[in-house]
Amino acid sequence: MSHKKSLRERLLAFETALNDKADIFAGEALKNGKGVEKALKGRSNLANGDSDEPILIVDSTIFGSVKEGLYITESRIYGKALYEDRREFLIETIGNIEVDEEKRSIIIDGVALQFGENILPKLFIISDCIREHIDSNANANSSIQKGRVAYIKTLCAQLLKLSLRVTKWNITSTGRITKV
């Protein structure tokens, strides 16, 4: 049986490339030193107190307050760009995620969150990992649905076969009763 990758596994496969311990903290970097502080500030300022463990935090503020940036958990993305309202996205409902290089933004279901140029290359990695995760879930759900349809077809075929047997038995029994 194949193992379905979690979003954590997908993002942390790039942990070394993502972690710069200045703007972006992922995985182990969130468990010690400055990363713990970023996780606490991000939970308070971006994630509205969400108790889910962060996978990745992007701090796009100058002084490190994590009042703008991204806070990503296994099930949600919280984001806030400068002078914008805080946004929350349930990962399982995201239809599209992409990066607009020209605007230095990550766009989630049409909502653009603009960040600095220094974060841009890493936004591509983050976006690709999330898109891959969403696509794998959609494919799994499609497979499950196809499996359900196939199962229902099998049940219908069995019901038809049994119905024909009962009808045949009924005709045979009626013929025998008539002869008696």
Notes on the structure:
This protein is α+β, with helices and mostly antiparallel strands and 180 residues long. 46% of the residues lie in helices and 18% in strands. It contains four helices and eight strands, in the order ααβαβββββββα. The chain has a five-stranded antiparallel β-sheet with strand order 1-2-3-4-5, with helices on one face. Strands 6-7-8 form a three-stranded antiparallel β-sheet, covered by helices on one side. The chain starts with 6 loop residues before the first helix and ends with a helix.
- The arrangement of helices and strands along the chain is HHEHEEEEEEEH
Largest sheet: 5 strands, antiparallel
Taking pLDDT < 50 over at least 5 consecutive residues as the criterion, the unreliable ranges are none
Helix/strand class: alpha+beta
Give the overall shape, derived from the CA principal axes.
Answer: rod-shaped
Strand order, biggest sheet? 1-2-3-4-5
Strand content: 15-25%
The proportion of residues forming helix, as a percent range, comes to: 40-55%
Number of helical regions = 4
For the secondary structure, the number of strands is 8
Distance between the termini: 60 Å
Radius of gyration: 26 Å
Arithmetic mean pLDDT: 85
